[in-house]
Amino acid sequence: GRFAFPDPSAWHGYVVPTALPMQQGTVALSDFELFIGSVSVSLGEQAMLTGGLLFLPMDPDEQLIHFGMKTTLVQTDENFTLAIGGFFFLVPGKNADVVGIPYLVGTIGDADLNLSVLAGTIGNFGSSNDSFSEITFAASFSTRMSEGVKFVGETAYFPGSDGVPLVLGLRFFGRSMSGDIGMMYFVGGDDGFSSPIGIPVVSFTADF
Fold first, then answer.
1. What is the DSSP string of 136-181?
2. Which of 10, 13, 92, 23 is CA-nearest to residue 53?
3. pLDDT at residue number 131
4. Predicted local confidence at residue 130, as pLDDT
5. pTM above 0.85, yes or no
């Protein structure tokens, strides 16, 4: 191929998952914005589980726990991949309800150049009456610029929101480690660009 090794983190953008699976036999440690940690484990060639918490000093009953899963349903020779999954959040000491987003995500392309579109619905699980909001959408795009550098872009739409977040930046990576550095802007709404300076977005992933 054109490059000596693949992007080890092609299974996700900054936050939005792609439909591409993790490398088989991989355990990944991730850190988002320095205080949101997670562990992801591949289950064979097509499935993965992830879970984590906040790296903040707080009472255990107030700790935010997050977990998720993803399974690849279709992967064709024409570089189309389809996966189903979900990511969920709970605070054990509160009402213990689980808030999450079950989703379906499709990716066109490979680990070097791809576009992913995700559709899901935000739900409140565990209560006497499970409730779901309208459909939410997200998209991510990445293109490899050199042996160890990618451009990554990401956006999402949430029902009732005034404008959408747009993250643009670079991913630096080696054979088993990656670091994402970008800026998040809010586009749309009454003010157009409501954060023209941008908010820094930083994440790291290491594979074992």
1. EEEEEEEEEEETTEEEEEEEEE-TT-SSEEEEEEEEEE-SSEEEEE
2. 92
3. 66
4. 62
5. yes
- Rounded Cα–Cα distance for residues 91 and 88 (Å): 11
Chain-centroid distance of CA 200 in Å reads 16
134-137 own/partner pairs: CB under 8 Å, 24+ apart: 134/159, 134/160, 135/159, 136/101
Nearby residues of 57 by Cβ (< 8 Å), 6 or more positions away? none
Segment 76-115, tens digit of pLDDT: 988 999 999 999 998 777 666 788 899 999 999 999 999 9
User: Which residue carries 């906040």 as its tokens?
Assistant: 54
pLDDT of residue 14: 94
Q: Tokens 């090794």 label which residue?
A: 5
Concatenated DSSP letters for 171-197?
A: EEE-SSEEEEEEEEEEE-STTSSS-SS
Beta pairing class for 149-157 and 164-173: antiparallel
Please list the ranges in the chain whose pLDDT falls under 50: none
